[in-house]
Write a structure and sequence with these properties.
By secondary structure, the protein is α/β, with parallel strands linked by helices. The protein has four domains: 5-272, 3-Layer(aba) Sandwich (Rossmann fold); 274-370, no CATH class; 397-463, Roll (Luciferase, domain 3); 467-643, GMP Synthetase, Chain A, domain 3, CATH 3.30.300.30. A five-stranded parallel sheet has the order 4-3-5-6-7, with helices on both faces. A five-stranded mixed sheet has the order 12-13-14-15-16, with helices on both faces. The protein is globular.
Length: 644
């Protein structure tokens, strides 16, 4: 169907004017915005932006959390034929300068004072940034910067213009075409400057509909929008599919209330990267450790049963009668209350994407009755490439190609994709576009993998990260890291070993989980660095690593990748320090360079190593964290094939 995002908005407003389009929690109360309300807001914003000088083909930055008025601004820009460019709200000011200059942005919408301050800080570097609108006026009363204006004033002027020109916005929307640029998303820039990925209305809506058809989504779904709108994963679920299906998008009050809001809304369609599911599991495990002995024993017993039969029940496979009966009792006593506590009692379909999820973590959620599935895609493919069908879910695959997707493997094992959802181009970067999209329309993903006997795609790792140990055995660092991160006490891990004789690891503890563990043992600590260096914490992490090594020993291909030595980093890996991307992916090359002295110490046989590291605080100040880190050996196991 030939359409655009603003046309879909008008369609919903005409057919279901009183139906809820969005909800926003404000001062503890959910406020509902109907499709008619939203269409009126978009019309007024579009008229205001037109009067201010926003023109067709121009870019407009939107920076902030999920808010109805920010979504309405993106729709208003698209109604005029302009292209919204969402930026990460947690990005440092300097990170915003390149996208703004690259896209020649004159207009920006900032959610609040924090985002306004960011844009004002870089204004000297971005002389073309003429007008900054803000949504939340708190703290901005005494600001007198030129070009700084309240969104309320924009809406008022737009309402007057709309009254005088009632057909203006409708005619502008009618002039838009499906192949017009609809949005631009900047990549995380793991290997250099970010690249602006340009998508059209056609590419985004085609993939949104392909995903909706796959899982039979309707206008009755409830979605919680809590991840950064600048990440295409959140954008496709709470914007593209929202307009394609007409379901309700709910915006939490703040980042701190997400868990409460999740329970109140009870979404039916849920999406999160693995780190969110890791965090939820960690919170569960912390609460269970604080529970009484009887509850802990019941939980362990029920979870043993769930891991054994839960995934089979979820997939509709035969399970013995008495196991079904015991699972039903477990569902009454443990699994049901646990799903309710996680806010997932009503979830019909849950997806994880963005990076690989550990098989143990994945199986945990399916074992307790949550229909968690994996999908595969990227910013450049408008997310939907492969999806897992119900009842055909495997922890080690990402599903089958969805509608109109072709997959081919290059000679080096790299996955190539051809799809109606491929990016139009990297903005102002034809060389980069030509590198990833060849003349035959194949997109080079950079991921290594293969199609298994069931036609499901299996991802090994990023093609550039898959390596070999010195003896020639396979080294897939992400696979090892995911197994380590299943443990609630390990938040992040970086495995090193390419072209070396053995694998070593740099570990981040989960401060909340390990802090709770330490407090219950009356183990005092003065902060993250102090806690991370405790001998008792090293023993705890060593136990986790040795369990992973035992699992790896049973894998014929990865038995040689067991972790021989490890250390616990003195600081948490942080996007502000360049160690993670804004979507919390490890910047492996950057970390290897930054912590080279630690890597050398791991392989040099040392038992400790001093390091001082520059860090950036949230207010922009810089400082240093130093420590002498202990280096510990971990037990490894003989490959099981050798013992057979």
């Amino acid at each position: 169907m030939e359409t655009t995002f603003p046309r879909l908005l008008l369609q919903h407003a005409a057919q279901r004017p009183a139906a809820a389009a969005m909800r926003e929690k404000e001062y503890g109360i959910w406020q509902t915005l109907t499709w008619a309300d939203l269409a009126r807001m978009v019309e007024h914003l579009a008229c205001g932006l037109h009067e201010a000088g926003l023109v067709r083909g121009e870019h407009m930055v939107v920076i902030g959390a999920n808010r109805p008025r920010l979504y309405a601004t993106m729709l208003a820009a698209q109604a005029l034929g302009a292209i919204p460019v969402p930026l990460y709200q947690d990005a440092a000011a300097a990170e915003c300068a390149f996208p703004i200059n690259n896209a020649e942005v004159r207009f920006a919408l900032a959610e609040d004072q924090e985002q306004v301050d960011k844009l004002l800080e870089i204004r000297a570097q971005c002389p073309q940034l003429r007008t900054i609108y803000y949504d939340d006026p708190r703290g901005l009363r005494n600001y007198s910067e030129p070009g700084l204006a309240a969104m309320d004033a924009l809406l008022e002027s737009g309402a007057r213009f709309a009254q005088a020109h009632p057909e203006f916005v409708h005619s502008e929307i009618a002039a838009g075409e499906p192949d017009d640029d609809a949005a631009m998303f900047f990549t995380s820039g793991t290997t250099g400057q970010p690249k602006g990925v340009v998508h059209t209305h056609r590419t985004l809506l085609d993939r949104a509909r392909a995903g909706a058809e796959f899982d039979h989504l309707t206008e009755r779904e409830e979605v919680l929008a809590y991840l950064p709108p600048a990440w295409i994963g959140q954008n496709i679920f709470s914007y593209a599919q929202w307009l394609a299906c007409g379901y309700v998008v709910n915006c939490p009050e703040s980042a701190g209330t997400v868990m409460i809001d999740l329970k109140e809304i009870g979404p039916t369609y849920y999406f999160a990267p693995p780190r969110i599911f890791e965090g939820l599991l960690t919170s569960v495990m912390i609460r269970m450790e604080d529970a009484g002995a009887l509850k802990r024993a019941m939980f362990r017993r029920c979870m043993d049963l769930a891991r054994r039969v839960g995934p089979a029940l979820r997939d509709g496979k035969p399970v013995p009668f008495f196991d079904r009966l015991k699972y039903a009792v477990g569902n009454l006593l443990v699994y049901g209350p646990l799903r309710n506590n996680l806010g997932m009692s009503r979830v019909r379909v849950a997806y994880t994407a963005g990076e690989a999820i550990g098989p143990d973590l994945f199986s945990f959620y399916r074992a307790i009755g949550i229909n968690l599935k994996q999908l595969y895609g990227s910013t450049e493919t408008a997310v939907f490439v492969c999806m897992q069908p119900d009842h055909e879910v495997h922890a080690d695959t990402v599903g089958v190609p969805c509608r109109d997707v072709e997959i081919r493997l290059a000679d080096n094992g790299e996955i190539l994709v051809r799809s109606p959802g491929l990016l139009k181009e990297y903005y102002k970067n034809p060389e980069a576009t030509a590198e990833v999209k060849d003349a035959d329309g194949w997109y080079h993903t950079g991921d290594a993998g293969f199609l298994d006997a069931h036609g499901q795609l299996k991802i090994i790792d990023r093609a550039k990260d898959v390596g070999r140990l010195a003896d020639g055995s396979l080294f897939a660092p992400k696979y090892i890291e995911n197994k380590l991160k299943f443990f609630p006490h390990i938040k992040e891990a970086v495995a090193v070993g390419d072209r070396r004789d053995r694998v070593c690891a740099l570990v981040n503890i989960d401060f909340d989980a390990v802090g709770n563990w330490a407090e219950r043992r009356n183990l005092p600590y003065a902060g993250y660095t102090d806690l991370a260096g405790k001998p008792e914490v090293y023993a705890l992490v060593k136990e986790c690593i040795e369990k992973v090594n035992a699992d790896l020993a049973a894998d014929e291909k990865l038995a040689g990748s067991q972790v021989h030595r490890f250390l616990i980093l003195h600081k948490e890996l942080d996007a502000d320090d360049g160690e993670l991307t804004r979507t919390n992916k490890v910047r492996r090359g950057f970390i290897a360079d930054k912590y080279r002295v630690l890597v050398d110490a791991l392989y040099g046989g040392q038992s400790e190593q001093y390091i001082e590291t520059q860090v950036k605080f949230e207010d922009g100040r810089t400082g240093a964290v130093s420590a002498t880190l202990r280096i510990m050996d971990a037990r490894t196991f003989a490959p099981l094939r050798a013992a057979a």
